[in-house]
Amino acid sequence: MSQLPPKSPLASPLSEGTNSRVESLDNLSMDSFWLEVENIKQSAEAEQEECSLADVKTREEGEAEAEWLQAAGLSELLGDHASEQQNVVLLSTLTRTQAAAVQRRLDTYSRSRRRKSKHPVRDVRDIFGGGSSEETTAEKEKSSPDQLWHNLRTSNGQKSETQDYSCTVRSPGKEEVFNMDIAYSEQAAVLTLLPEPRRLKDGNALTKFKILKGRLGVTRIGDLSAQDMKKIPTLALIELTALCDILGFELKRNKTAKLKTTEKRLFGVPLNTLLENDQKLLPNTKVPLLLQALLSCLEKRGLETEGILRVSGSQTRIKSLEQKLERDFYTGLFCWDEVHQNDVSGLLKRFIRELPAPLLTAEYLPAFAAVQNIPDLKQRLQALNLLILILPEPNRNTLKAILEFLSKVVAKENNNKMNLWNVSTVMAPNLFMHKGLPNKIPEGKEKQLAEGAADVVRMMIHYQDLLWTVSSFLVAQVRKLNESNSKRYQFCDKRLKNLLRKIHADKDKVEKNQAEPSKIVKVQGSLLLKDSLEVHLNSATRVADVLRQFQKSLCQNGWNIVNTVNLLKCNNSMDCTNLLLFEVGGNIGERCLDPDTYLLDLYHTNPHAEWIIKQNPSYPRMF
C-alpha cells in the first residue's frame, strides 16, 4: 500500500490504530469501488460535470466558528446584546466537555473579531457569572477526573463497565456494551486519563455491540415527538464537537450549498420539494414515493439476482427509463414489471447521485468521511450516531430506507454473491461523490478516502439499529430544556446561583421521591377504553407488564371478541408489538416507551406526564 499523505484536510493525521485498520481493509477488494466510480463518470459525461469525493473548502478564521455557533443554536452569543435567558437555558443543560467545546469556538470567534477591530463578543463565563477568568471550563473539567470515572463505573449499577472503559482491546465475535447513558465526550475524557492500552486490529470482523439499557429504556429516533426531535440536532452537534475535541481532531464542515432549480419532478429534485409533492398525494409520506417504488421493485425481483447493485445496467436504458418516470410515474402508467433488475438498481444509484445536495448533506459529508480517522470502533460509532442525529429529517429517513434495503441485499449473499463489503464499496461512491462538492481531492489521497468511505458505509449498514437510537443523555438534556423553557425564569445578577439552587432542589425532590416504594397511577387507553386503567407501580413494574394488564382488562370488560383476539396476537402474550405505551407531557412532548422501561423510575423523572396506550401504527387499525 502506498504511503499516505501526512496531513488530511478532513481531520488529523491517521493514528497507528487507523493505519492498522486500513491495512486490514486493503486485503479486501476495492475493484467494485473504482468500477462504480468509472460508471459514475461515464453517466455524468452528458452533464459535463465531474464528481468529487468529500473535501472541505478553507474559510476565514472565525467564519467557521460563527457558523458552528449558529448551527448549535447559540447565534445570540455572536451579537453585542446577547439574549441571556435563552443562552443560559441551553448552556445550563451542557456537560463540562460540551461547555468547553462551546467556549473554545467562542474564544476563537472573539479573537477573530478583535483582530478586525470589532466589538468583543460575550463570553460564556460572563453569561454564567462567577468564577475566575483564568480558570476555563476545560481546566475545571481536568480538575475532577475521579468523579467522571466514578460516574462511569457506577452508572446503572453496572460493575462490569469498569473493564469496558479501562481497556479498548476487543475479541472478535465477543459482544460489548455500548453505553448511551453518559455523554460520549465524557467517556472519551475518562479514557484519555488511562494508560494507553495495547490495541488489537479490528480486522475485517465487526464487533457485536449491545446497548446498555437504563431504567428509562432505549429511545429510537421515531419514538420522540417532532417538537422534541427539533432540539436533538443542536445538542448532537455540540456533543459531536466536544467528542472530536477530546479525540484530538477538528470537525470540518462545508458551507451550505446553493441548490440549483430544475424543471424535473423526480430526479435532481431537492428532498424537501420531492416530499412536499408526494405528501399532496399521500399525507405523512416520509420517504420519497419514487424511492419507495425503486426499493420495492428490487426487493420483489432483485434480491437474489447475482451481482445486483454491482453489475451495471444499460446507461441508455437507464436514461430512457428516467425520462419515462418523469412523464408517467405520478399518473400510475409506468409498468415496473418490464424493467430489468439491474436497470432498477442503476436508477436507484442515479436517484441518490442526482440529488442537488448530497444525501449526507454538503455540510457534514466531510465529517462522515472523517469518521475513518477515529482509531477506536466504538468511538467511530458514537460519532456516526451523532452525525445521523444531526441530519435533516428527510435525509435521515431516506438514508434509513436505503440502508434497510442494503441489509436485505447482504442477507441474501448466498444467492446474489454480494457480501457486506461488496455492497459497501459499490454504494460508497454514490453517497460520498457529488458534482456539487467545492474542492478536488489532492493527488495521492483518493485511495485513503475511498477505503474510508467504504468502511463508513459498511458500519452504517451493519450497525444501523444502534445508529438510529437517541442516546439517553441527549433525551435527558431535552427534558432539562423543556423544564427550563416552561418555568420562565426571571434572571438577575445572581441568575446562575438561582438556577443552580433550583436544579439542586429538583434533584433533592427526585431523590426523596425515589425512596417511595410504590405508586398508583392511571393509564389512559386511547379509543380503546372509556375509563382509565389503574396501575400499581413498584420498582419492578415495566411497560410490558402494564400492556399485559391492559389486555387482561379488555378481556374482563367484554370488549369486542374479534378485536380482542387480534389484540392478543403476540408472542405468548409477552411481547405485544401491536400495542404501545406513550409518555405525554410534563418535561417531554411525547415519547414512545421501550417495553423494558421501569415505570416507577419514569414517574419520578417526569411526574406530570400522562401515560396513554395506543395501537402501533404499523399494524392495521382494528376499530
Description:
It is built from 28 helices and 9 strands. It has a 5-stranded mixed β-sheet. The chain is 50% helix and 7% strand.
In short, what is this structure?
The protein is α/β, with parallel strands linked by helices and 623 residues long. It is built from 28 helices and 9 strands.
Instruction: Work out the radius of gyration.
Output: 26 Å
Number of extended strands: 9
Structural class: alpha/beta
**Helical segment tally?**
28
CATH structural architecture of the domain at 146-257 and 357-470: Orthogonal Bundle
Major β-sheet annotation: 5 strands, mixed
- Strand order of the biggest β-sheet: 6-5-9-7-8
What's the end-to-end separation, in Å? 63 Å
Task: Estimate the global geometry from the Cα principal axes.
Answer: globular
Output the CATH topology of the domain at 146-257 and 357-470: Phosphatidylinositol 3-kinase, Chain A
What percentage of residues falls in helices of 4 or more residues?
40-55%
- What is the residue-mean pLDDT, rounded to a whole number? 76
CATH class of the domain at 146-257 and 357-470: Mainly Alpha
Percent of sequence in beta strands = 5-15%
Residue runs with pLDDT of under 50 for 5 or more positions: 1-17, 80-84, 128-169, 489-493, 560-575, 619-623
